[in-house]
Structures are given as structure tokens and as C-alpha cells.
From TrEMBL:
The keyword Zinc does not apply. Signal peptide: none annotated. GO terms for cellular component: plasma membrane. It is a multi-pass membrane protein. It comes from Rattus norvegicus (Rat). Belongs to the G-protein coupled receptor 1 family. Keywords: Cell membrane, G-protein coupled receptor, Membrane, Olfaction, Receptor, Sensory transduction, Transducer, Transmembrane, Transmembrane helix. It comes from the Eukaryota. One of its GO terms (biological process) is cognition. Pfam families: 7tm_4. One of its GO terms (molecular function) is olfactory receptor activity. This is Olfactory receptor. The keyword Transferase does not apply. The chain crosses the membrane at residues 27-49, 61-83, 103-121, 141-164, 197-222, 242-261, 273-295.
Length: 313
């Protein structure tokens, strides 16, 4: 009697398709991708340079600097790969590169969420306890907060590397997307991916969802404090200081929530729409952050004008 020894071969190289169904439009799709990426790089680099000047060394400016740095990493981890697909049809990607990409993308996204939470807490202390603001937000505390934010994002996403590496990819090696994502990659494995699925839910609930709840609570307390102010001028001025942060919060969480809802309930929506919506989360915020804070903050405006024009007179 003969025994057949079946050997399962695990794929170590995958192919990203970009935006399936719109291959003939890839060159046109690349234009907003490229413009968004260049704007994000230049805008956030300028913002970091401006925020490191001695006149802008308040706690909020340190957090803005961290947010700008995270924006650069987030867009750089995904957009160049998409552009190489659109321009050169270079969609081939190794498993290790795929895992590296999703690690940086997810960890940076969680770090940005943490930064937005701390910025909400900063506004809460500044508005509700103005006299204690400078004693609470010391340089030492800001440094510890920064370390905690990036440590949390690293610790929560690091296990994903091992959860993906343990899988045997014997199914399809064609990924219909512009970048690698955890469950999108894991579903091509022969193994049971229940652990991957539930760990993904745990990360989502313990980071992004928790941050959204705490930000909401912070702004409820902020609004309660604002509407107790006797002067209408004071209320308007205080609300204006929160305006840019609220805009960034909406831009950060809004597309992600909308994308999740369309994936869950919009099964009739074409796949290329889902992929384009997923890319909006990566493209829009890094591009608009410097513009929003540049428009809303007079101090940042003055420093940008000084850097761009005064030095060249």
C-alpha cells in the first residue's frame, strides 16, 4: 500500500492589484494619491520645523509635533507602494514586507488616536482648570505621555507579527488592495484564523474605541464648562480654541467609521469603492492636518510666514 505525502507550500510572495476593476484608470487615480502624499510630506515637515522653534514650546505644540511626525510615517508606509502599483505595475510584495507595512500602518494609526486623546485631555485641563494647567502639563509629563502613546501602539500591534507569521498561506496570493492589512492577508491562510480575528477585535476595542469614548467624555465636560461661562465672548473664544482639534477628530475617525459601516452593511457596493474609501483614511488626514492647524492657529500662521518669507528678505 502506498502512502501519499502531501506537502503544503506556503506563499512567501504576494501581488497587490491596486484598485481592482479600475486598472485602466490607475494613472488618473494616482494623481490625487501623489498630490496628497507630497502635500502631507511638505506640510507636516514644515509644521514640525515651525513647532520646534522656541516661541512655540507649549504642551499643545509638542503634541502637534508628534501628530505631524505620525502623519508622515502613516502616509509613507502605504502611499509609495500604491504609486508603484499605479505607475509601474510593481505590485509584488514579500510576506515580510507585507507584515512590516501593516505593522507600521496599524501602530501609527493607534499612536495618532492616542495623540488625539491626549490633545482632548489637554483642552479639558486648559478650559476647566486653567490655573493648574502649567503645573499639570510639565515637560516631564509630556515626555512620559509621548513614551506611553508609542509604547501602547507598539505593544498592541507587535503580537500581530507572530499571529501572521505562524500562518501557512496556501490559498490565493493575489491581494485586491493597494496595501496589506491584517485580516485581508490572514484570510488567504489554510489555518484557522479565529485568533487573528479576535485579537483584531481586542486591539480595536482597547485602543481606538476606548479613545473615542474618552474623547467624547472630555468634550462633554468641556462643553458643560464653556456654557457655564457668563460672557458670550469668552464662550466663543474658548470654542474657537477647540475648533481645529474637533475638525481633526472628525477627519480621523469619520472615514474609518464610514468605511467599517460600508464593509459591514454595504455588500452591494463594488469592491473598488471599499478600497478607495479605505485609502481615504490614509490620504486625507496627513494632508489636511497642517492646513487645519495652520488656518486655525494664529501663532502657527505667524511662524510659518516668518519661516517662509522673513528669512528671505
Amino acid at each position: 500500500m502506498t502512502t501519499l505525502n502531501h506537502t503544503v507550500v506556503s506563499h512567501t510572495v504576494f501581488r497587490l492589484l491596486g484598485v481592482p476593476g479600475l486598472e485602466d484608470q490607475h494613472m488618473w487615480i494616482s494623481i490625487p494619491f501623489f498630490i496628497s502624499y507630497v502635500t502631507a510630506l511638505l506640510g507636516n515637515s514644515l509644521l514640525i520645523f515651525v513647532l520646534t522653534r522656541p516661541s512655540l514650546h507649549g504642551p499643545m505644540y509638542f503634541f502637534l509635533c508628534m501628530l505631524a511626525g505620525a502623519d508622515i510615517v502613516l502616509s509613507t508606509s502605504t502611499v509609495p507602494q500604491a504609486l508603484s502599483i499605479f505607475w509601474f505595475h510593481a505590485g509584488e510584495i514579500s510576506l515580510d514586507r507585507c507584515i512590516t507595512q501593516l505593522f507600521f500602518m496599524y501602530s501609527t494609526f493607534i499612536a495618532e488616536s492616542g495623540i488625539l486623546l491626549v490633545m482632548a485631555f489637554d483642552r479639558f485641563i486648559a478650559i476647566c482648570y486653567p490655573l493648574r494647567y502649567s503645573t499639570i502639563f510639565t515637560i516631564s509629563l509630556i515626555g512620559k505621555i509621548g513614551m506611553a502613546i508609542f509604547l501602547r501602539s507598539f505593544v498592541t500591534i507587535f503580537p500581530v507579527i507572530f499571529l501572521v507569521k505562524r500562518l501557512t498561506f496556501c490559498k490565493n496570493k493575489i491581494i485586491p488592495h493597494t496595501y496589506c492589512e491584517h485580516i485581508g492577508l490572514a484570510k488567504y491562510a489554510c489555518n484557522n484564523i479565529r485568533v487573528n480575528f479576535w485579537y483584531g477585535i481586542f486591539v480595536l476595542m482597547s485602543t481606538i474605541t476606548l479613545d473615542v469614548v474618552l474623547i467624547f467624555v472630555s468634550y462633554v465636560l468641556i462643553l458643560r464648562s464653556i456654557f457655564r461661562m457668563p460672557s458670550q465672548d469668552a464662550r466663543h473664544k474658548t470654542l474657537n480654541t477647540c475648533g481645529s482639534h474637533v475638525c481633526v477628530i472628525i477627519l480621523f475617525y469619520g472615514p474609518g467609521i464610514f468605511t467599517t459601516l460600508t464593509q459591514r452593511f454595504g455588500r452591494h457596493i463594488p469592491p473598488h469603492i471599499h478600497i478607495l474609501l479605505a485609502n481615504v483614511c490614509i490620504l486625507v488626514l496627513p494632508m489636511l492636518n497642517p492646513i487645519i492647524y495652520g488656518i486655525k492657529s494664529k501663532q502657527i500662521q505667524e511662524q510659518i510666514v516668518h519661516v517662509l518669507f522673513t528669512n528671505y528678505k
